[in-house]
């Protein structure tokens, strides 16, 4: 099960995914896209810091969110990519399909981004 929290702050809609991002959550993801459609945001940040596993369906859902943003002339970036998710993106040759935003370091040090 994945929890998707969508918050709007100013011009940014932040979506925090919690749990595995797989085909099993597609219906919830579709509802999230419907909700994003009603939000007046200039960019979407998709935070994956609490996602432990992603499969090809999850990658497809992220691409759908990116396409949704592009159709609305909105920016879209991924944030908080953990090692397992990053490895899956790399193996699927999908890492170059997304924009990545640095993740703020909780200790206040330099921000990190998947590399």
Automatic annotation (TrEMBL):
Alphabetized Pfam families for the sequence: STAS
Location of the STAS domain: 14-89
Signal peptide range in chain numbering: none
InterPro entries the UniProt entry points to: STAS_dom, STAS_dom_sf
Gene3D superfamilies (alphabetical): STAS domain
Molecular function terms from GO: anti-sigma factor antagonist activity
Protein name: Anti-anti-sigma factor
Organism: Roseospira visakhapatnamensis
Phylogenetic classification of the source organism: Bacteria, Pseudomonadati, Pseudomonadota, Alphaproteobacteria, Rhodospirillales
């Amino acid at each position: 099960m994945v929890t998707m929290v969508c918050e709007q702050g100013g011009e940014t809609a932040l979506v925090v995914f919690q749990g595995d991002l797989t085909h099993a959550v597609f219906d919830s993801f579709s509802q999230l896209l419907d909700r994003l459609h009603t939000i007046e945001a200039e960019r979407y940040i998709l935070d994956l810091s609490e996602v432990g596993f992603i499969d090809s369906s999850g990658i497809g859902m992220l691409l759908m969110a990116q396409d949704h943003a592009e159709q609305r002339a909105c920016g879209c970036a991924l944030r908080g990519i953990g090692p397992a998710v990053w490895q899956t993106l790399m193996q699927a040759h999908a890492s170059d399909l997304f924009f990545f935003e640095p993740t703020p370091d909780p200790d206040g040090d330099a921000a990190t981004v998947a590399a």
